[in-house]
């Protein structure tokens, strides 16, 4: 393990992994987090990565019909907690936060990380948590957009080219205080605001959210061919 920032080891850290998704873009029968890379599921790889931080524990929000998750050999299994996920990612995160508050303090830090992001590096995790602690602000991993962006109006017709100046592509983990995130999500849901990630709920509340430079290999497995890409990334990182 890389050397951790000294403040990190003295901070109460928890993680939430929403893993109740439908996997609609992947295939009708298999959830992407339960696909295998080498001899482990994507979710097991993801937990191994996030567990490189000195977590007090982590909560997996899983589907009501999910009998598979609790049979897996997760890293630091003694720190694993399970709760029922919700209809959308945002509901799963909220359920996990409520579950977390049974044994964690609302002022503890929480990292929310996608179940299908198994390639995040310890250096990025370290930088993210250090930024949050040092600035006492919420923070996310992100990378500047580098491709030319096109706005497509109808079908395959390009409407215009969108300037990528100051545009960043959000990744996870995203880190904030447990109580702050719970309040932000509840406030956004009450006002029917679309929440695509934790930062969007915090932004709606007027919270400062810092950006920490991530890496382009911190991919989210969304389509079937992403699985092969993740396999190659994990292989090259090891």
Report on the structure:
It comes from Acinetobacter calcoaceticus DSM 30006 = CIP 81.8. This protein is an alpha/beta fold and 238 residues long. It is 29% helix and 25% strand. The protein contains 6 helices and 11 strands. It has a 7-stranded mixed β-sheet with strand order 5-4-1-6-10-7-11, with helices on both faces. It has a two-stranded antiparallel sheet with strand order 2-3. Strands 8-9 form a two-stranded antiparallel sheet. Helix 2 packs across helix 4 and helix 4 packs across helix 5. The protein is globular and about 50 Å long.
Question: What's the topology here?
Answer:
Blueprint: E1 13-19, E2 36-37, E3 40-41, H1 42-50, E4 57-62, E5 80-84, H2 89-100, E6 109-112, H3 122-135, E7 138-144, E8 149-154, E9 157-162, E10 168-177, H4 178-190, H5 198-204, E11 209-213, H6 224-237
Helix pairs in contact: 2-4, 4-5
List the main descriptive attributes of the protein structure presented here.
globular; about 240 residues; about 30% helix; alpha/beta; single chain; seven-stranded mixed sheet
Let me know the average pLDDT.
Answer: 93
* Count of extended strands: 11
- One letter per element, helices H and strands E, the order comes to EEEHEEHEHEEEEHHEH
User: Could you describe the largest sheet, including whether it forms a barrel?
Assistant: 7 strands, mixed
User: Which residues form runs of ≥5 with pLDDT under 50?
Assistant: none
The main sheet orders its strands as: 5-4-1-6-10-7-11
Tell me the radius of gyration: 18 Å
Q: How much of the polypeptide forms β-strand, as a percent range?
A: 25-35%
**How many helix segments?**
6
Range of helix content: 25-40%
Shape assignment: globular
Ends: how far apart? 12 Å
Helix vs. strand class? alpha/beta
């Amino acid at each position: 393990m890389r050397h951790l920032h000294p403040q990190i080891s003295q901070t109460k850290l928890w993680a939430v992994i929403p893993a109740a998704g439908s996997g609609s873009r992947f295939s009708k029968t298999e959830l992407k987090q339960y696909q295998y890379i080498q001899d482990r599921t994507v979710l097991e790889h993801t937990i191994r990565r996030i567990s490189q931080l000195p977590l007090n524990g982590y909560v997996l929000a899983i589907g009501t019909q999910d009998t598979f998750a609790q049979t897996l050999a997760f890293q630091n299994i003694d720190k694993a907690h399970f709760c029922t996920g919700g209809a959308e990612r945002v509901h799963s995160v909220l359920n996990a936060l409520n579950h977390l508050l049974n044994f964690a303090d609302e002022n503890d830090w929480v990292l929310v990380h996608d179940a299908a992001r198994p390639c995040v590096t310890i250096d990025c995790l370290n930088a993210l948590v250090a930024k949050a602690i040092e600035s006492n602000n919420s923070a996310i991993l992100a990378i500047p957009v580098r491709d030319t962006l096109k706005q497509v109006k109808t079908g395959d017709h390009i409407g215009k080219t969108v300037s990528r100046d100051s545009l960043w592509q959000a990744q996870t983990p995203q880190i904030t205080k447990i109580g702050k995130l719970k309040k932000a999500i509840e406030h956004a849901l009450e006002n029917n605001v679309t929440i695509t990630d934790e930062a969007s709920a915090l932004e709606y509340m007027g919270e400062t959210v810092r950006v920490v430079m991530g890496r382009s290999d911190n991919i989210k497995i969304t389509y079937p061919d992403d699985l092969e890409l993740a396999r190659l990334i994990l292989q090259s990182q090891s």
